[in-house]
Amino acid sequence: MTRPSPEPSGDDPPEPDRPDLSGPDPAMVFGRLFDEYAPALHRYLARRVGTTIADDLVADTFVTALDHRHRYDPARAGVRPWLYGIAGNLLRRHVRDELRALRATARLVTERHQDGPENRVAERLDARARIARLAAALAVLSPDDREVLLLTSWAGLSPVEIAQALDIPAGTVRSRLHRVRRWLRASATTIEPAPALPEEHHG
Length: 203
What we know:
By secondary structure, the chain is mainly α. The protein has a domain at 27-93: Rna Polymerase Sigma Factor, Chain: A (Orthogonal Bundle). 64% of the residues lie in helices and 0% in strands. The protein is built from eight helices and no strands. It has helices spanning 27-49, 51-67, 79-91, 95-115, 122-140, 143-153, 159-166, 170-186. Mean pLDDT is 76; it is low at 1-10 and 189-203.
């Protein structure tokens, strides 16, 4: 006869990705969180705003998380999307600089592609053209669409984790990803910035 599994009790230890941050001495917990999540978070942020700003944003993310640790609810979300949500809020302060950098990259790479010496190898030109297309496309996307795309492509978050990080329904995340990827595929052959995405209809 199969014995039923024991019911979880309040004494069970928290899951590793859903730690209890409300204890009186959070230093050990946050030290582990920093060691585990800071490197990947830094790589994600550095790809968007550069290493120097990423250094500051990672530090600010964990300081903010520590200050607001009592707001974290492990029943609602894992700690990774919670940290990315905090980082995303901090990152929005740099959106204008990010857009200027993306547009500058698209313009610079396109100019080098057009004016470069004729003896450059085709592979290098193709790589520059791809960078220009990507930068131009990212600059055209709305902030919401760009954040969803980069959280999945660069940070490796799942749609459910992105939904938790941004506090939106997972269905909205999947809809945005599908729409943005379809638009990117359609505009992948152009170097100039593509037209803006159509309005997203809700209902």
